[in-house]
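Ticket #209: bound-state structure for adenosine monophosphate.
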Amino acid sequence: MLGPPGAGKGTQAARLAERLGVPRIATGDMLRMEVNSSTDLGKRAERYMRRGVLVPDEIIIEMVKRRVSQEDCQGGFILDGFPRNIRQAEALEDLGTVDIVLYLEVEEGEVVERLSGRRSCSNCQAVYHVRFSPPMMGGKCDRCGGDLYQREDDREKVVRQRFQTYRESTQPLVDYYETKSVLEKVSGDGTIEQISQNLLKVLQSRGLL
Ligand code: AMP
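RESOLUTION: The complex was predicted; output attached.
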Protein backbone atom coordinates (compact mmCIF):
# COMPACT_ATOMS: atom_id res chain seq x y z
CA MET A 1 0.00 0.00 0.00
CA LEU A 2 1.41 3.34 -1.02
CA GLY A 3 0.13 6.81 -0.23
CA PRO A 4 0.66 9.88 1.95
CA PRO A 5 0.22 9.83 5.72
CA GLY A 6 -3.48 9.63 6.51
CA ALA A 7 -4.52 8.25 3.12
CA GLY A 8 -6.16 5.27 4.83
CA LYS A 9 -3.45 2.70 4.11
CA GLY A 10 -3.67 1.09 7.54
CA THR A 11 -7.45 0.78 7.52
CA GLN A 12 -7.57 -0.60 4.00
CA ALA A 13 -4.57 -2.88 4.43
CA ALA A 14 -6.20 -4.44 7.50
CA ARG A 15 -9.42 -5.11 5.57
CA LEU A 16 -7.59 -6.55 2.58
CA ALA A 17 -5.42 -8.72 4.78
CA GLU A 18 -8.49 -10.21 6.39
CA ARG A 19 -10.18 -10.77 3.05
CA LEU A 20 -7.12 -12.41 1.51
CA GLY A 21 -6.12 -14.33 4.61
CA VAL A 22 -2.58 -12.99 4.63
CA PRO A 23 -0.77 -10.97 7.29
CA ARG A 24 -0.52 -7.19 7.17
CA ILE A 25 2.98 -5.98 7.87
CA ALA A 26 2.87 -2.39 9.10
CA THR A 27 6.34 -1.08 9.81
CA GLY A 28 4.97 1.94 11.75
CA ASP A 29 3.01 -0.37 14.09
CA MET A 30 6.01 -2.64 14.51
CA LEU A 31 8.19 0.33 15.41
CA ARG A 32 5.63 1.71 17.87
CA MET A 33 5.54 -1.67 19.62
CA GLU A 34 9.34 -1.61 19.90
CA VAL A 35 9.15 1.92 21.31
CA ASN A 36 6.48 0.92 23.85
CA SER A 37 8.54 -2.05 24.98
CA SER A 38 11.65 0.17 25.24
CA THR A 39 13.78 -2.23 23.22
CA ASP A 40 17.14 -1.09 21.82
CA LEU A 41 15.57 -0.87 18.38
CA GLY A 42 12.66 1.15 19.82
CA LYS A 43 15.01 3.58 21.53
CA ARG A 44 16.96 4.15 18.31
CA ALA A 45 13.81 4.57 16.23
CA GLU A 46 11.93 6.88 18.56
CA ARG A 47 13.99 10.00 17.96
CA TYR A 48 13.28 9.83 14.23
CA MET A 49 9.60 8.97 14.57
CA ARG A 50 9.00 11.85 16.96
CA ARG A 51 10.31 14.28 14.36
CA GLY A 52 8.34 12.78 11.49
CA VAL A 53 11.41 11.69 9.53
CA LEU A 54 12.35 8.22 8.33
CA VAL A 55 14.04 5.72 10.60
CA PRO A 56 17.37 4.62 8.99
CA ASP A 57 16.99 2.10 6.18
CA GLU A 58 19.29 -0.52 7.78
CA ILE A 59 17.00 -0.81 10.81
CA ILE A 60 13.80 -1.05 8.78
CA ILE A 61 15.09 -3.41 6.12
CA GLU A 62 16.44 -5.81 8.75
CA MET A 63 13.13 -5.68 10.65
CA VAL A 64 11.07 -6.41 7.49
CA LYS A 65 13.44 -9.18 6.39
CA ARG A 66 13.02 -10.92 9.71
CA ARG A 67 9.25 -10.53 9.65
CA VAL A 68 8.69 -11.87 6.13
CA SER A 69 10.81 -14.94 6.82
CA GLN A 70 8.25 -16.11 9.36
CA GLU A 71 5.91 -18.99 8.64
CA ASP A 72 2.69 -16.96 8.27
CA CYS A 73 4.20 -14.87 5.45
CA GLN A 74 5.00 -17.77 3.16
CA GLY A 75 1.70 -17.46 1.27
CA GLY A 76 2.11 -13.74 0.74
CA PHE A 77 1.59 -10.53 2.74
CA ILE A 78 0.48 -6.93 2.52
CA LEU A 79 3.02 -4.25 3.24
CA ASP A 80 1.77 -1.06 4.85
CA GLY A 81 4.29 1.73 5.26
CA PHE A 82 7.13 -0.08 3.53
CA PRO A 83 8.94 0.68 1.25
CA ARG A 84 9.23 4.39 2.00
CA ASN A 85 12.06 5.21 -0.41
CA ILE A 86 13.88 3.79 -3.44
CA ARG A 87 16.56 2.07 -1.37
CA GLN A 88 13.92 0.16 0.59
CA ALA A 89 12.11 -0.71 -2.65
CA GLU A 90 15.33 -2.18 -4.03
CA ALA A 91 15.83 -4.18 -0.85
CA LEU A 92 12.28 -5.50 -1.17
CA GLU A 93 13.13 -6.94 -4.57
CA ASP A 94 15.51 -9.35 -2.86
CA LEU A 95 12.68 -10.59 -0.64
CA GLY A 96 10.21 -11.62 -3.32
CA THR A 97 7.96 -10.45 -6.13
CA VAL A 98 5.76 -7.38 -5.78
CA ASP A 99 2.41 -8.43 -7.30
CA ILE A 100 0.74 -5.05 -7.07
CA VAL A 101 1.23 -1.60 -5.57
CA LEU A 102 -2.02 0.02 -4.50
CA TYR A 103 -1.57 3.77 -4.49
CA LEU A 104 -4.19 5.60 -2.44
CA GLU A 105 -4.52 9.16 -3.70
CA VAL A 106 -5.76 11.96 -1.45
CA GLU A 107 -5.38 15.73 -1.25
CA GLU A 108 -3.05 17.13 1.39
CA GLY A 109 -5.71 19.40 2.95
CA GLU A 110 -8.04 16.47 3.43
CA VAL A 111 -5.35 14.44 5.09
CA VAL A 112 -4.53 17.00 7.78
CA GLU A 113 -8.14 16.84 8.98
CA ARG A 114 -8.06 13.06 8.97
CA LEU A 115 -4.86 12.82 10.95
CA SER A 116 -5.78 15.36 13.60
CA GLY A 117 -8.96 13.39 14.39
CA ARG A 118 -7.30 10.00 14.27
CA ARG A 119 -7.19 7.86 17.39
CA SER A 120 -5.40 4.52 17.70
CA CYS A 121 -5.85 1.61 20.05
CA SER A 122 -2.92 1.28 22.42
CA ASN A 123 -3.47 -2.48 22.53
CA CYS A 124 -4.40 -3.80 19.04
CA GLN A 125 -3.51 -0.74 16.86
CA ALA A 126 -7.05 -0.50 15.39
CA VAL A 127 -7.67 2.97 13.99
CA TYR A 128 -10.65 5.29 14.62
CA HIS A 129 -11.59 8.86 13.80
CA VAL A 130 -13.44 11.17 16.15
CA ARG A 131 -15.80 12.23 13.34
CA PHE A 132 -15.60 9.74 10.48
CA SER A 133 -15.36 6.46 12.34
CA PRO A 134 -15.86 6.96 16.08
CA PRO A 135 -15.70 4.05 18.52
CA MET A 136 -18.99 2.84 20.00
CA MET A 137 -17.83 3.69 23.50
CA GLY A 138 -15.85 6.91 23.83
CA GLY A 139 -12.13 6.39 24.25
CA LYS A 140 -12.30 2.57 24.05
CA CYS A 141 -11.53 0.18 21.21
CA ASP A 142 -14.57 -1.68 19.78
CA ARG A 143 -12.52 -4.78 19.09
CA CYS A 144 -10.54 -5.29 22.27
CA GLY A 145 -11.63 -2.60 24.76
CA GLY A 146 -8.13 -1.08 24.81
CA ASP A 147 -7.62 2.64 25.48
CA LEU A 148 -7.54 4.92 22.44
CA TYR A 149 -4.84 7.57 22.19
CA GLN A 150 -3.60 10.20 19.77
CA ARG A 151 -0.27 9.36 18.20
CA GLU A 152 2.34 11.93 19.12
CA ASP A 153 3.23 12.31 15.46
CA ASP A 154 -0.38 13.10 14.49
CA ARG A 155 0.02 16.58 15.97
CA GLU A 156 0.06 19.32 13.39
CA LYS A 157 3.72 20.30 13.39
CA VAL A 158 4.89 16.71 12.99
CA VAL A 159 2.22 16.03 10.37
CA ARG A 160 3.75 18.77 8.20
CA GLN A 161 7.18 17.22 8.51
CA ARG A 162 5.80 13.77 7.70
CA PHE A 163 4.33 15.25 4.54
CA GLN A 164 7.59 16.75 3.50
CA THR A 165 9.32 13.42 4.14
CA TYR A 166 6.64 11.74 2.06
CA ARG A 167 7.07 14.16 -0.86
CA GLU A 168 10.84 13.92 -0.88
CA SER A 169 11.40 10.23 -0.21
CA THR A 170 8.26 8.21 -0.84
CA GLN A 171 6.46 9.96 -3.71
CA PRO A 172 9.24 8.96 -6.17
CA LEU A 173 8.07 5.37 -5.68
CA VAL A 174 4.96 6.18 -7.73
CA ASP A 175 7.10 6.57 -10.87
CA TYR A 176 9.34 3.71 -9.82
CA TYR A 177 6.45 1.24 -9.65
CA GLU A 178 4.63 2.73 -12.63
CA THR A 179 7.66 1.92 -14.73
CA LYS A 180 7.48 -1.65 -13.48
CA SER A 181 3.79 -1.82 -14.46
CA VAL A 182 2.61 -2.87 -11.01
CA LEU A 183 1.08 0.44 -9.88
CA GLU A 184 -2.68 0.88 -9.56
CA LYS A 185 -4.08 4.26 -8.51
CA VAL A 186 -7.22 4.21 -6.40
CA SER A 187 -8.96 7.28 -5.03
CA GLY A 188 -8.66 7.56 -1.27
CA ASP A 189 -11.80 9.74 -1.11
CA GLY A 190 -15.11 8.19 -0.17
CA THR A 191 -16.31 5.84 2.52
CA ILE A 192 -14.11 3.09 3.90
CA GLU A 193 -16.45 0.55 2.29
CA GLN A 194 -16.40 2.21 -1.15
CA ILE A 195 -12.63 2.39 -1.17
CA SER A 196 -12.37 -1.27 -0.12
CA GLN A 197 -14.66 -2.24 -2.99
CA ASN A 198 -12.54 -0.31 -5.46
CA LEU A 199 -9.38 -1.95 -4.20
CA LEU A 200 -10.95 -5.40 -4.52
CA LYS A 201 -12.00 -4.61 -8.10
CA VAL A 202 -8.44 -3.69 -8.96
CA LEU A 203 -7.14 -6.92 -7.42
CA GLN A 204 -9.72 -8.86 -9.38
CA SER A 205 -8.76 -7.18 -12.63
CA ARG A 206 -5.18 -8.29 -12.05
CA GLY A 207 -6.20 -11.86 -11.28
CA LEU A 208 -5.12 -11.58 -7.66
CA LEU A 209 -8.49 -12.43 -6.16
P1 AMP B 1 3.45 5.18 9.99
O1 AMP B 1 2.70 4.55 11.11
O2 AMP B 1 3.57 4.27 8.80
O3 AMP B 1 2.94 6.55 9.63
O4 AMP B 1 4.95 5.37 10.52
C1 AMP B 1 5.25 6.18 11.63
C2 AMP B 1 6.73 6.56 11.63
O5 AMP B 1 7.53 5.37 11.70
C3 AMP B 1 7.20 7.27 10.38
O6 AMP B 1 6.99 8.67 10.43
C4 AMP B 1 8.69 6.93 10.37
O7 AMP B 1 9.41 7.71 11.31
C5 AMP B 1 8.68 5.50 10.88
N1 AMP B 1 8.57 4.52 9.78
C6 AMP B 1 7.54 3.67 9.51
N2 AMP B 1 7.80 2.92 8.42
C7 AMP B 1 9.03 3.29 7.99
C8 AMP B 1 9.86 2.91 6.90
N3 AMP B 1 9.48 1.98 6.01
N4 AMP B 1 11.07 3.53 6.76
C9 AMP B 1 11.48 4.45 7.64
N5 AMP B 1 10.74 4.89 8.67
C10 AMP B 1 9.53 4.32 8.86
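RESOLUTION NOTES: DSSP finds nine helices and seven strands in the chain.
TICKET STATUS: resolved
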